[in-house]
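Q: How would the structure tokens look for this protein?
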Amino acid sequence: MTHRPHSPNRRRLLRGLALAGSAACLAACQSLPTGAATAAAASGRFVRRQIDVAGHVYAYQVFVPAAAIPRPLPVVLFLHGSGERGDDGDRQTQAGLGPHVRAHAADFPALVVFPQSPAGESWEGDTATMALATLDAATAEFDGDRARTTLTGMSRGGYGTWSLALREPTRFAALVPVCGGITPPGTRPDLDSLRVEATRDAPDPFAAAAHRLRAIPSWIFHGARDDIVPPEQSRRMYAALQREGADTRYTEFPDANHNSWDPAYATPALWPWLFAQRR
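A: Here is the predicted structure in token form.
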């Protein structure tokens, strides 16, 4: 890819978008020609960031909504799946929530944080610590609303959604796990270690997780034909949450295999429901 040098006006715009998301963005836009300023203010965009956690530097991205969206912003933390792991700082925006946000960049009304898990890792331990650190940093930098912070993830990130919520049960206003689970899926040897570690030793990990998360509204999504993480994982968690009297919803797509994230994030009712949740 060839990178063209930025003009002084372009550099001012990028600096404003990256550092402010609102006031400084508007100031930067005022220095541009009218058409360019209007286009810049009318659409949100992704910005790249790095964070140092315990001596390790991780790349992540943040979607910052259009300047016209009122601040403080609702915040969504997105956890990607196995295929997006690495250190390029970009792959985590290319599947799942990232494409949906790009398609609705002009009017998507939330700050979205996209950490990237290192290769071979799950959203546990140091990787979970890093994800929460990116959430804190982006919330502070771009005027996010801690009372309207929600968590979603797909596949391995669906497992991570339950795991991070168990780690920070008072942090999130709502959870949206997509094709995730609690215990190893039992479909491939390389997935035998995929689980929610916080409940691994419980007699019934689903019941243990549901009991601890019963106060957090959730909307679970899964594909009925999923042959990687069977839908039984989400069915059991939904049933356990129902037994706890939790505010929970479950949508199962009858024709979807493992990719239930595209129809999940395209569900029109999801977003008004999610952004209405508060701690």
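The CA atoms of residues 20 and 142 lie 6 Å apart.

The chain has two domains: 1-42, 43-275.

Upvote if useful.
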